[in-house]
Specification:
heterodimer; A: Peroxisomal Thiolase, Chain A, domain 1; two-stranded antiparallel ribbon; 11 strands; globular; B: alpha+beta; Peroxisomal Thiolase, Chain A, domain 1; 2 domains
């Protein structure tokens, strides 16, 4: 196995403003993201030899991308893999370049969620017996929070405050980002006292529902050098798909094996032995505050059951030891499902290039992105690692 | 010939009651109220489980479901109940409906089958959840509940001791297809020419047939639409206060087709050996059924909870508005503009019947791991197609974790979703119902209860939910199918 490390590079990226984009269709969003990426890379639409479109519910095929961008009869594949959709579109595009099939490819992730009229997440399901309980994502992750508090003997009030600190941190980062859906500070008390969504998770423990798109131009490192010096190298692309659901009665609900497995695989591919020391930043799937808390432990950034201590000491803030969700995260960008993964890569790419404006980290050479799709007990998890050009 | 009679009985009264503690309720007494996810089928299943407990379900040859409130106009309720109770497939099933007398008619049919030798054991389940118009007298006096009787010839504790039936075509209460509420004719006509003429005729006919006096009867489980008319009727029949089974108008209410049978269960719970008990129903005539208790009565099976246990296990509804929403007489706007649910797939329901209705998990024959839903490939050892069925519906469960969802759009917001681990293995993620929020905790003991999830495309979709445990859990390792 050769792995993907240093075999492909990103030479251009684009990311729309995320939010309630009443003004824009999914096609408009794809045009916005792709043309920013073209301009950033310094390529024309006609340079793209193949494309991958990630979307969960906005389109069924790759064709709408061809129609929106007027691509020239090139191969396009639609990728759908829950919340890991965008990262998996990026992964497939990268593999095609690494295999030597194409020189320059495009990966786009898009989701238009705000046309449903429903303020929650409206994702159509295949016909079935409809006996499984209606558990929207907040309810699923609330079950993890309930058990986490119980298992580690954390009083409800303390647990809520820890989670609130994560929300407040990400909101602070979002204030420094003009593309974020939400750009205002929130206080810990405000989070703790917010209306309940799925106990114990309140309104500000949940990420928003937004529209958005992001795009990446991928090529080989050799070609990348001819475009720019500050290209970004792909160090690892891992995917782990949970196989056992919540069927096993010995599963604890307080760790997500898919994250553990995907990150172990990614660290190995990237040659990382101590992630907390080696990584400069991590963009993780903070669909809910409890998710981010558990991810700290699953990625090996915090010890089991002790992530609260790292939260309390500010380890993951912009000024902290290992900043997490520097752009504001899903918390501030919302979660247009098919777009989120590439939006995260966009932040790592900008940080590694030193172009992250007010959010710019002092040192940013190695960054990680992480997506978690599905539900506790049955996830599809992607972990990707990127490094600055040598 | 062997004796024919009752070998076990049980009851079901919903946990929730509307009464003096309920804001906006104008009735003076308390009545039992089915939760929003209960109907006659689910209550019949609950009474059936209360009755059969850990008995051998394979021995049951027939199931009769009696109710005036069956879910389908075409499609049998008994077949759903038989599946939920995990009875054999080669059994006789029937619905007896459309008349308040359905419960006693069902019981008599079961006794006839056993006496005729066409079945060894027949289970009769009677349940009703009748809907009066908001603020009507019917609404005030009605209650929801169910009774179950297992009749047979072995270990009989109440022998079938006679019957008399009158059929008298009478329009005093009626409800046509599509009518949301029960209609009635003028009260004085209905009482004088209906209830107070027909029941005395039936009882007199019974006493005459067996050359008995009313004083020979130890206890009468007597139908009556409300407390006042029940008292008048008993007086007219010449029944003394100590002969009349408490009609429970202060705690249960008139439970329709199930009412005389629920009162009979209550009577049996406090009966002595060698007593003569009558159950008297009403509706287009009257059925009178007599039972004589014998020495097997002591320690007899009168249900895991029975009438006494179920009546004691209660919680008050806080407001009439809650009840009105449960019964869908108070329609609410879904402010979230949630997408309308699509029809369940009938072929998927059919394929999953063992999992959804019989509530079977799989136990791997190779490694013993219990898994729900049953898997083709074992989640623990990957053995393929080596699995046996384990019924989880009567297993004791414990909450491993839960959430309380305020936005799921449930009638009983917040929707409690629980992860339940079962004694002997197996984990299920399911809704919790009949709960009060303060009692929901990690580690709380729960039982499973058969409930109606929703009605879409005219399909009543039933499944199991967790409920706070009301009575001691059952020990059962038996699996049907």
């Amino acid at each position: 196995m050769n792995g993907i490390r240093d075999r492909v590079a990103i030479i251009g990226m684009g990311c729309t403003k995320f939010g309630e984009r009443w003004d824009a269709s999914a096609a408009d969003l794809m045009v916005e993201a792709a043309y920013e990426a073209y301009a950033d890379a310094g390529i024309e639409s006609s340079d793209v030899q193949a494309a991958w479109l990630g979307t969960v519910s906005s389109f069924r095929t790759g064709q709408p991308l061809a129609e929106a961008l007027k691509l020239d009869y090139i191969p396009i594949t639609r990728v759908e893999n829950a919340c890991a959709t965008a990262t998996d579109a990026f992964r497939n595009a990268s593999y095609a370049v690494a295999a030597g099939i194409y020189d320059i490819v495009l990966a786009v992730g898009v989701e238009k969620l705000k046309d449903s009229g429903f303020s929650g997440l409206a994702v159509p399901e295949a016909p079935g017996s409809d006996v499984t309980p209606p558990t929207p994502p907040p309810s699923q992750f609330a079950m993890a929070a309930t058990r986490y508090f119980h298992q580690y003997g954390i009083p409800y009030e303390d647990g809520k405050r820890t989670l609130a600190q994560i929300a407040a941190k990400n909101h602070h980062n979002g204030t420094l980002n003009s593309r974020a859906h939400f750009q205002q500070e929130i206080g810990v008390d405000q989070v703790v006292n917010a209306p309940m969504i799925a106990w114990p998770l309140g309104l500000f423990d949940c990420c928003g529902v937004s529209d958005g798109a992001a795009a990446a131009i991928i090529t080989t490192p050799e070609i990348a050098r001819s475009f720019r010096q500050d290209y970004v190298l792909v160090k690892a692309l891992a995917l782990s798909v949970g196989a056992f659901g919540a069927i096993r009665s010995d599963w604890d609900f307080t760790h997500f094996p898919e994250t553990v497995r995907a990150s172990q695989s990614a660290f190995q591919e990237a040659g990382i032995s101590s992630p907390r020391e080696e990584l400069d930043m991590a963009m993780v799937h903070d669909c809910f505050t409890i998710t981010e808390l558990i991810i700290y432990e699953d990625l090996g950034l915090s010890q089991r059951g002790r992530a609260s201590e790292d939260v309390a000491s500010g380890s993951f803030t912009l000024e902290g030891e290992l900043p997490v969700n520097t752009d504001g995260g899903l918390k501030c960008f919302g979660h247009p499902i098919g777009a989120s993964g590439i939006r995260m890569i966009y932040e790592v790419y900008k940080q590694l290039q030193g172009k992250a404006d007010a959010r710019q980290l002092r040192k940013a050479d190695l960054g990680l992105t992480h997506n978690l799709g599905g539900r506790p007990g049955s996830f599809t998890c992607s972990v990707a690692i990127f490094g600055a050009a040598e | 010939m062997d004796l024919t009679g009752i070998i076990a009985c049980g009851a079901y009264v919903p946990r929730f009651r509307m009464g003096p503690e309920t804001e906006g309720w104008t009735g003076s007494a308390e009545r039992a109220v089915a939760n929003f996810d209960e109907d006659s089928v689910t209550m019949a299943v609950a009474a059936g489980l209360d009755c059969i407990k850990d008995r051998n379900r394979q021995a049951i040859d027939g199931l009769i479901f009696a109710s005036t409130t069956v879910p389908y106009a075409e499609k049998q309720g008994a077949a759903i109940i038989a599946a939920a109770l995990d009875l054999r497939q080669d059994i006789f099933t029937a619905d007896i409906t459309d008349v308040l007398r359905a419960g006693t008619s069902g019981l008599r049919s079961a006794l006839d089958s056993v006496a005729a030798g066409t079945a060894r054991q027949v289970l009769v389940v009677a349940a009703d959840s009748r809907q009066g118009a908001p603020r009507s007298e019917t609404e005030r006096n009605s209650g929801d509940g169910a009774a179950a009787f297992l009749v047979g010839t072995d270990d009989v504790f109440a022998e079938f001791a006679g019957f008399h039936t009158i059929t008298d075509n009478m329009l005093d209460n009626w409800r046509s297809s599509g009518d949301p509420f029960i209609r009635s004719w003028e009260d004085r006509f209905a009482t004088e020419e209906g209830l107070e003429r027909i029941i005395p005729e039936a009882v007199a006919g019974f006493l005459d047939k067996y050359t008995l006096n009313i004083q020979d009867i130890d206890k009468v489980a007597l139908y009556g639409p409300d407390a006042r008319r029940h008292t008048r009727l008993a007086r007219r029949l010449g029944i003394n206060a100590d002969q009349i089974q408490d009609p429970l108008f202060g705690s249960l209410g008139n439970t329709g087709a199930a009412f005389p049978l629920m009162l009979l269960v209550a009577a049996l719970e406090s009966a002595e050996p060698n007593q003569l008990l009558l159950t008297v129903s009403y509706g287009d005539g009257s059925d009178v059924l007599a039972f004589r208790t014998n020495s097997s009565l002591n320690g007899a099976d009168t249900g895991a909870g029975g009438m006494g246990g179920h009546l004691e296990s209660r919680a008050a509804i806080t407001s009439y508005e809650t009840y009105a929403k449960w019964r869908e007489v108070w329609l609410t706007d879904d402010a979230a503009r949630r997408p309308a649910p699509s029809s369940p797939s009938v072929s998927a329901l059919w394929r999953e019947a063992n999992k959804n209705l019989r509530f079977y998990a799989g136990r791997c024959d190779a490694c013993g791991y219990v898994q729900y839903p049953p898997q083709r490939v074992c989640v623990n050892c990957q053995a393929m197609d080596e699995s046996s069925s384990v019924r989880l519906s009567d297993k004791a469960g414990e909450v491993f974790t839960y959430s309380m969802d305020y936005i799921a759009g449930a009638v009983d917001t917040p929707l409690v979703v629980s992860v339940v681990d079962f004694e002997g293995g197996g984990r299920v993620i399911c809704m919790m119902t009949d709960r009060e929020l303060e009692e929901v905790k990690v580690g709380m003991p729960v039982s499973m209860s058969f409930r109606k999830l929703r009605v879409v495309n005219g399909i009543h979709n039933y499944y199991w939910k967790a409920i706070p445990r009301r009575f001691a859990a059952l020990e059962s390792e038996q699996v049907g199918g």
